[in-house]
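Please supply some protein, with fold tokens.
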Amino acid sequence: MSPDSAAYEGLVRSGYLSPAQWQAAQDSANRRQIPLERVLLRDFGLSRCVLLDTLSQYYGCPAVQYDERLPVPTALFAGLDPKMLRAQVWFPVRQLGETVVIAAAVPDSPSMRAQVRELLPAAAYEFRVALGEDIFWYIQDYLHAEAPLLIGIERTGLAYWRNTMALWRTKLAAHRTAHARARTSMKLLRWGLAMVALAHVLTHLPDSVLSPYYLPILVVGVVLAVIGLFDYLQVRGSRMDLPCQKELIQITAANIRFTERYHLRERPCQAQDDSHLARLAATIPPYCSIIPPVPASKERTYLARERNMLAAQRTIASSHRTSYARARTGLSLIRTGVAFIGLSIAIHKMLGITPYSFTEYLLMGAGILMLGDGLIWYLPVRRLKYGIGREIKP
């Protein structure tokens, strides 16, 4: 139900339109089978306030404009049928004491008023004129239409999910920090063991300039190795290995899955590689806002959608960085382990001692442990990268 064209004739009397323009607007609306208000707003550039003032004078009642901040009580719209509201173009927008304020495109329509009294029993009613487009936005917002149609209250859900993804990215950042701490601890351990090895060599080279200082070198090496090992075991014992790779992908997918509801159009993407996270990222199409000129609230909603898409991409990138941090920790351990296994063998061959001494066994044992721990860190990321474990589907 739309206002008669006579309701807008005041635009000509007020000088907003010439008679020729008024006739052209009517012809355009009839030809295109669209409401006259849309033609006046879009094609002739009239403001919403001008149209509402004209309608208010015609119907002799106050006007109401769409405002997403309007506190509409849930009891007013709960259980209302959106199709019936769209057919009669009305929506309850306020309750002032015992009076219910109704926004309607045609406030003097008998059928609309009878429907209001049937669906919303109240002591009194106040009917105000509103643009049909504004009423449709109220219906879409408060009666939970499909996600691409939501405007105002949709942003609350979008903000909630941005917070959810930000929380997950914060946890991933803490996880990467733990890996960085572990690598720092391993450097201390590596330096300590290297100094222990140097002290061991100096005890068998009495002619060396550093031979008299083998004991301080040994003590410093042991202290550094103990500090590094203690710090690494602290981090290792704090469940640094969680989330594991499968959980990381599954939780990341759960964090961004909701974004499918806000895709306004399908834009298929090609995954950059065969990894699970890359295929997960390909499910989010490149997002570009299409911002209409009015209302400002709708523009902010499009921008909120775009922020969520970008937040989803950042979440995926954060998961990538966490995987690579885990791989770097594993490679650091592998590198150090192989180095000390080789160092113990080299010292034995260079000194020609038979059998292996305690220090050489210590270096070789530490190298083997670090090599094994490094493989535990690295191999899950390696399998993920090259697509092993297809049971995880983005």
Q: What stands out?
A: The domain at 61-145 is CATH 3.30.300.160 (GMP Synthetase; Chain A, domain 3). The chain has 14 helices and three strands. The two ends are 45 Å apart (CA to CA).
